[in-house]
């Protein structure tokens, strides 16, 4: 965390549980993503139940161990151009003082993309507050940058 926002245009505030729940990962990690997803599906099927209004209660949690860093290498200016996003913001975490070090956020019609960048290079990329427009934008992003899109909560993987 840092006291100053990396980008002052706006700030997206995430809960600690939101971090990396719907993310883009280097395609070289497809096997590790598949293995992690199998473990998550087991927890979802065998160690949870659905109650009121489609909410799910888990009796066991799974912490991802194999995927590690997303290992992206996308120039931030290329991502901004592709997403047609003119302003760039920072990331804050609820109940934590300050801003995420090297954090950035881009707002589009599909939702809010956020991640970490170093020296103008996106190293991790996630999406939050997904809208209906994401159904078109996310697959294009996956194809153009040869990424995997993983929604860990919904147990879905999208490949190019």
SS-derived structural category: alpha+beta
Low-confidence stretches: none
Instruction: Give the helix level as a range of percent.
Output: 10-25%
Number of strands: 11
Q: What is the multimeric organization of the chains shown?
A: single chain
Q: List SSEs in N-to-C order.
A: EEHEEEHEEEEHEE
Note the gap between the termini.
34 Å
General shape:
globular
Q: Give the averaged pLDDT, no decimals.
A: 93
Strand content: 25-35%
Radius of gyration: 16 Å
Number of helices: 3
| Sheet having the most strands | 7 strands, antiparallel
Keywords:
3 helices, alpha+beta, 23% helix, two-stranded parallel ribbon, 160 residues, 11 strands, 7-stranded antiparallel β-sheet, 33% strand
What features would you describe in this structure?
This protein has 160 residues and is of the alpha+beta class. It is 23% helix and 33% strand. The chain has helices spanning 30-46, 76-83, 134-145, and strands spanning 11-14, 22-26, 48-51, 55-58, 74-75, 90-93, 103-108, 111-118, 121-128, 147-151, 156-158. The strands form 3 sheets. Strands 2, 5, 7, 8, 9, 10 and 11 form a 7-stranded antiparallel sheet that branches. A hairpin with a 2-residue loop joins strand 8 and strand 9 (121-128). The model has no long low-confidence stretch (mean pLDDT 93).
In a few lines, what is going on in this structure?
With 160 residues, the chain is of the alpha+beta class. The protein has three helices and eleven strands. It has helices spanning 30-46, 76-83, 134-145, and strands at residues 11-14, 22-26, 48-51, 55-58, 74-75, 90-93, 103-108, 111-118, 121-128, 147-151, 156-158.
């Amino acid at each position: 965390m840092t006291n100053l926002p990396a980008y002052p245009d706006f700030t997206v505030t995430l809960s600690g549980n939101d971090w990396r729940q719907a993310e883009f990962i280097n395609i070289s990690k497809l096997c590790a993503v598949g293995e992690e997803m199998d473990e998550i599906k087991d927890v979802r099927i065998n160690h949870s139940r659905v109650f009121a209004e489609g909410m799910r209660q888990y009796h066991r949690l799974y912490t991802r161990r194999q995927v590690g860093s997303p290992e992206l290498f996308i120039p931030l200016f290329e991502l901004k151009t592709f997403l047609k996003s003119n302003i760039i913001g920072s990331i804050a975490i609820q109940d934590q003082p300050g801003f995420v070090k090297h954090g950035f956020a881009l707002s589009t019609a599909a939702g809010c993309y956020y991640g970490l960048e170093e020296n103008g290079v996106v190293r991790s990329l996630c999406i939050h507050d997904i809208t209906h427009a994401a159904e078109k934008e996310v697959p294009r992003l996956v194809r153009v940058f040869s990424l995997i899109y993983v929604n860990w909560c919904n147990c879905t993987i999208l490949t190019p």
